[in-house]
Design brief:
Number of domains: 1
Helix content: 25-40%
Distance between the termini: 14 Å
Structural class: alpha+beta
Strand order of the largest sheet: 1-4-5-6
Largest sheet: 4 strands, antiparallel
Number of helices: 2
Length: 120
């Protein structure tokens, strides 16, 4: 599946200003609003609950509380499919990483997630 045009535009914009994002006061919330939320929306996720579901039925929950083994975590996002929760944590560009605990959630239609700096 080729990347949606919206994702390609996000990549281009990030590449164009990457030095600013890494050196300035750019923070995690701004990265999530400008890049990560639009990325997941472009991949088919209802990131902002536009369908109006009750909390228990939302596809994406921000700042969720998730039990992983015996630990309780607070991932930036929890993605839900058929009762299965997939947590995702992200960091701002200065840390040069996006931790995806299960890449299968990147797209409802795909099990592939591309991360910066990884050749596929």
């Amino acid at each position: 599946m080729p990347a949606p045009d919206r994702v390609l535009r996000l990549i281009d914009r990030f590449d164009q200003f990457v030095d600013d994002y890494k050196s300035g006061p750019y923070n995690e919330t701004t990265v999530r609003v400008e890049f990560i939320d639009p990325f997941f929306a472009a991949m088919g996720w209802d990131v902002h609950n536009e369908k109006g579901y009750a909390e228990a039925y939302r596809e994406v929950v921000h700042e969720d509380t998730v039990k992983i083994g015996s630990d309780v975590k607070a991932p930036d996002y929890s993605f839900r499919i058929g009762g299965v929760v997939r947590p995702v944590g992200c960091n701002w560009p200065k840390e040069n990483r996006c931790v995806i605990l299960n890449p299968a959630i990147c797209s409802k239609r795909s099990i592939i997630c591309f991360q910066p700096g990884i050749d596929t």
